[in-house]
């Protein structure tokens, strides 16, 4: 490539001290370890230095899981507002290196919609990130639709991120192995199962018929959904399915973007590009849980034409996020 | 097209009336009258469908949940009965129809014995099991006598889905089951539970104990090939000598194309697992047979590799 393309990464986490203080023990676990705590708490020199070292020009930062999704409504609203104001300050000081997705107080959906609007219009935020379930409820439930109505009106996407899975599913599927492999419930499998389930439920809920411009971002190469498209489609076409959604594929490829966060695999990327089209695939790292340099060197080494590589590295994100 | 091997399909279902009566069959999630008729038939209609699709061999496995969700006594009795029934029904078509055994997993020792009996006496090619056994995943050590026997007999075990754990269905899917009942099955539930079983088998250490054990997963490996990269990164090394998820998965699993005629997913799976571990299958009668062979015919791939997928790999793995 003639000149180095701009590199934008958009699943990049921080932890707000006040929000983090209210996390349950399971949820606080990923933030342990001295290096991780320091990086998650930093929205300044350390973060920018590690972006520089890896060649990442812009991070769109978001809070770590589960953010305020498991709080009572009042705490969620108060803490979301304070955390958003603090991260806005850090973005302003960053000389256009850091942008933000809002912390979203989903336990009060009306307030969450208002907070999204406030942060987008007042702070220039690029959308919002929602983590796992809100106190056990999936976010396709109609009570949350005011958030999507507002996101569509504002023209910003919703990033659907995993959180520690529902305890009954952990009990049924993972608990026997958590002593030896705690990651089985999280990035090793449980995250993917629950977040892909959330993606399927969004499609079947009809939310995209109601809000046809709504766009969702999934990390981790779409939590596997691009690979499953053919089978989900075939299964939904079988007898006895009476719902309105006849083609999962058609809805998915019109309303979902995916990122490469924590999933730097050549064959998996190719499968996603083939199924979704190049315009819906965006680079991300999942900093600091995943290190920046392996992600950037992976994309640099990809055997892909320069125009498509530029779309993955910045073009698609610029268009989707109005950067 | 050069085809040096016979065309083999190996996730092809049938029903035994007494097993279905006891187990409740497939819970009706995607049944129609024609599907039931075909499940209950091992004869001319099945052979005609195979002929029209250009399929030389079907390896038959019972429909879910088979004998996995019964009391031990019923499971042992009905597994034996249905295995003898299947062998008898296949007898008129010695070069066309083969069997995977029903295993009475509620009694693991009896299941191991039944596997040996059906392989040595009836010429079965392995076994098919469906989901957990009375809510216990099959990686649990109580089931290891089955894996020990399969390794000793050098026959593979096909791990097929069944209606998923009620707790998970309740939390993840129940809101949509009225409109989309298939969501608890082939639409999504099958995938997450069967991939979970595959993962648990890898983590259990069963493959270190029985290095010759081979597992078959249908439905393009229940998407595990897609996750090999991420799981290898996140679960890190699994054995004391440093084997990763990828090492174990790619040495002990074969996958089939049953109900999953997607070229991007196929190409991806070949890249991750290697051509020798990918086998053609249909998922008869839930999925159309001819659509499967038509799909394979137009996949752009070397004739030698296509030959392996369509039959060569199955002939080797199942010693057909």
Would you mind describing this structure in some detail?
The complex is a heterodimer of chains A (323) and B (320). Chain A contains 16 helices and nine strands. By secondary structure, chain A is an alpha/beta fold. In chain A, α4 (45-54) packs parallel to α15 (292-301), α5 (73-92) packs parallel to α6 (109-123) and α6 runs parallel beside α7 (145-154). With 320 residues, chain B is of the alpha/beta class. In chain B, strands 4-5-6-7-8-9 form a six-stranded parallel β-sheet. A three-stranded parallel β-sheet of chain B has the order 1-2-3. In chain B, β4 (101-102), α5 and β5 form a beta-alpha-beta unit. Chains A and B meet through α8, α9, α12 and α14 of A and α7, α8, α11 and α13 of B.
Provide a brief overview of the structure.
The complex is a heterodimer of chains A (323) and B (320). Chain A is of the alpha/beta class and 323 residues long.
